[in-house]
Amino acid sequence: MPNQSGRRIVITGANSGLGFEATKAFARKGGEVVMACRDRGRGERARDEILTEVPDADLVVERCDLADLDSIEAFADRLQEAYNELDVLCNNAGVMAIPYRETADGFERQFGVNHLGHFALTEQLLDLLAAPDAESRVVTHASEIHERGEIDPERLVSRIAGEDAKHSYDKWDAYGRSKLANVLFAYELNRRLDDAGMNVTSLTCHPGYADTNLQRRGPKLSGSAIRERLASLANRLFAQPSERGSLPLLYAATAADIEGGEYIGPGGLLNMRGYPERQRSSEASYDRELARKLWRISVELTGVSYEFDSHTTSA
């Protein structure tokens, strides 16, 4: 990982798991990290923990709740006031296989947080990412579970908003759908950035099987202590440490030979562990018509419209 001095990185979900490990790694290499956290108190405790290991870390904690479009807008407004440019946006935060919940805006929570929240955030930070002379990146954290994800554009809105979403809910189907949306978004964003001639690239990555709180959160919210303990046991037996799980994200964000539109994941056993490499995502993720339809639906649901022409650089 090259020196990150002089670079400013935004990481969502920076207070725990892979986001915490990535924040620590960037800080060790001299980067300035804006820790975007749903709970400011947890973010500050995470920052203090990193400072015990990296005393000169340049860390800023900001509240950003990806389940609330107003919170996302307020966060982006604060960054617009504080900074002139950003070098990397890591769309990392997420929820996995939780019981049915809704966001503040009435969306099924997994799709709302994992995809729609990051879709809105990326647009609202695009001016900072596209600052003159910058060569910035947007890295969206996906999952191998995206391979089981299915998106039917004709039914998508009914499955993520309103009563139909609740009645047809399957937590793993919902998670797979949100992760497929992450990959489709990352690729479509890169194509649109390229068409607009912008100096921003978009790519996606997955961590393999990494030991984080994600596996335990679903059982905990369901009130199942047994499944929570089983998830913890499975993590200890089979998962790679979260430090290793953060490597694809770090590689995607910093490697000199990386290109937009790539998919990075661990190259070891069953792509569950090991060092990062370029990989191929699911066939559905390369469906450009599906990506365009998802983009239009995401604009309609969030009210956020990417005005690429206004961001286009002179180059």
What separation lies between the terminal Cα atoms? Answer: 29 Å
Which structural class fits the helix and strand makeup?
alpha/beta
Output the CATH topology. Answer: Rossmann fold
Percentage of residues assigned to helices: 40-55%
CATH evolutionary superfamily:
NAD(P)-binding Rossmann-like Domain
How much of the sequence is in beta strands?
5-15%
Reading the helices and strands in chain order gives: EHEHEHEHHEHHHEHHHHEEHH
**For this structure, what is the CATH class?**
Alpha Beta
Number of helices: 14
Major sheet summary line: 8 strands, mixed
Give a summary of the structure in a few sentences.
The chain has 315 residues and is of the alpha/beta class.
Structural commentary:
An eight-stranded mixed beta sheet has the order 3-2-1-4-5-6-7-8, with helices on both faces. Strand 2, helix 2 and strand 3 (58-63) form a beta-alpha-beta unit. It has one domain (8-304): Rossmann fold (3-Layer(aba) Sandwich). Helix 8 (171-195) crosses helix 13 (288-302). The mean pLDDT is 91. It is of the alpha/beta class and 315 residues long. The chain has helices at 17-28, 40-53, 69-82, 109-124, 126-129, 156-160, 163-167, 171-195, 214-222, 225-238, 242-245, 247-254, 288-302, 308-311; strands at residues 8-12, 32-37, 58-63, 88-91, 136-141, 200-205, 263-266, 276-279.
